[in-house]
TrEMBL record:
The lineage of its organism: Bacteria, Bacillati, Cyanobacteriota, Cyanophyceae, Chroococcidiopsidales. Signal peptide: none annotated. Residues 196-335 are annotated as: Disordered. Residues 277-291 have a biased composition (Pro residues). InterPro entries: PRC-brl_dom, PRC_barrel-like_sf. This is PRC-barrel domain protein. It comes from Chroococcidiopsis thermalis (strain PCC 7203). Pfam families: PRC (PF05239). Residues 5-76, 87-163 form the PRC-barrel domain. Residues 300-315 have a biased composition (Acidic residues). SUPFAM superfamilies: PRC-barrel domain.
Amino acid sequence: MTSENTIKRSDILNTKVIADDNAKVLGVVSQLWVDIDRREVVALGLRDNLIAFASVPRYMYLSSISKIGDVILVENEDAIEDIDVEIYSNLVNCEVITETGQPLGRVRGFTFNAQTGKIYSLIIASLGLPQIPDQVISTYELPIEEVVSSGPNRLIVFEGAEERINRLSVGVLERLGIGKAPWEKEEDEYYTPTAVRPENQLGSGVPLQAPKAQPLKTTQPAVQEAWDEDEYEYETVQPRIEQQPLRRQQYEPNRYDRDLEEEENWSEASGSDRYTPAPPPRYPEPQPFEPKPYTAPKDLDDDLDGDAWGEDEEPQPLNIPKKIKQPEYEEEGGY
């Protein structure tokens, strides 16, 4: 660990937190939460042990720490509190750009005061992954005073801040002369187009043959001018829509018309001798209705007085047709 009270983020991670009153291990530091507006470390996140990645996170304020060494000492277990860390940021993997949009890299760590929590500088690199060692990737230190404003996962610094950056380590690629700092790369190197297979490529969007423009047919309504005798001026009358004549049903001449037409064509009769159609028939005038005289119905009780099975009347003989005997079939000889 560094001298005095300035330490790095990577030095305090995975450090045990122990209660001073009963020597109980409260957890291991897994994350540091920063208030970007005040540029200070506010709280620490804890987990049960180094391999307990799925444990329930616990939090404590930086002001609860009484001493930092190989371990972190706090007074008692009351240092663990419920803290809303959603309003804070861990600054890891935040993009750093200048006011003109020049990329400088991503944050992979920072240095701060262990007592007050004030951040002194940012440690940036082309990749914001703290797990990559410093010997593999080049790292740089940027003073926190260069930060102008902050946003979601982004820090904006003054223009020309790349000239005031201190190099901390040289990566393998730069040692071989292959890699460069992010601000030293040309603009063309930031965009690497991916190759697309020919069958998946889209067309240029230009049609093979431009469609021919067809003139629009417009009909202008006829305008009539009316003469006003009083003012002696021409007035424009509103256009009148000409109505199409209705189609009449084809007329079929009847028998009388055909006879009349033939008579006009072939005969030399005068107008008085020509055929004249018969006048319409005259129907007789309706006669007033005269009701028929009322006749009483026949009394049916008279027929009920007699005996239905009596022998008053002689039975009439039935007309039964006589049965005629058919002659039998006689065979003819000579066969």
